[in-house]
Amino acid sequence: MDIIPVLDVMNGLVVQGHRGDRRHYRPVESVxxxxxxxxxxxxxxxxxxxxxxxxxxxxxxxxxxxxxxxVLRALRRxxxxxxxxxxxxxxxxxxxxxxxxxxxxxxxxxETLHGLAGLREIIGAFSPEQVLVSLDVGAxxxxxxxxxxxxxxxxxxxxxxxxxxxxQVLFLTLDRVGTGTGPALVELRAAxxxxxxxxxxxxxxxxxxxxxxxxxxxxxGGVLLATALHRGWxxxxxxxxx
Length: 242
Known about the structure:
Blueprint: E1 2-10, E2 13-16, E3 26-27, H1 38-49, E4 53-58, H2 59-62, H3 69-78, E5 82-86, H4 92-100, E6 105-109, H5 116-125, E7 131-138, E8 141-142, H6 154-163, E9 168-173, H7 185-194, E10 199-203, H8 209-217, E11 222-225, H9 227-230
Parallel strand pairs: 1-4, 1-11, 4-5, 5-6, 6-7, 7-9, 9-10, 10-11
Antiparallel strand pairs: 1-2, 2-3, 7-8
């Protein structure tokens, strides 16, 4: 199981995510590094986890107030890991620009997806290794601007996405992000049982090494981590079996 540390970037700084409520995000305070600038934080996360990829969520781009390219170029110049970038992309032009600027994988999140036609074009234009679809889930169900997904429960949305040719899914429970309340194991088990042809990555709520072991036991392909690393809940010694 891959460990993928997360950088949530807002106004040029790494911020601490909490339940997806971006109005209250503040610059990260970390036991790993005395800085909230993206490159030092990324370097510290790589050193702690020995990861091969970083997940970069450009929150300004997601909110439509800026684009991800400045942050992405700076990280690309300073790092030697793959960069999975979530910047609100919903068409092939946007995805292509991120890849040109150094993203190794473009994240297409249901939260900002405008329609399935755009997703279909992205899937058709790029290889499966270059695209990751994020099923963004809140307390009320799937979060999305997409009319075809609006109002659906996660399993219903997964059926639609699988029908569009999606093969790899980030199951991101935004209402658990930053809380340390544990991953959505029950929901993940149900999703993996219903869609054995999909590869799943988990995101949201992980606090302990035991929870990492539980995710590994159900054969999740990877897990996003941020708060647990910055607060020291999970340290390098806990990642030996990743």
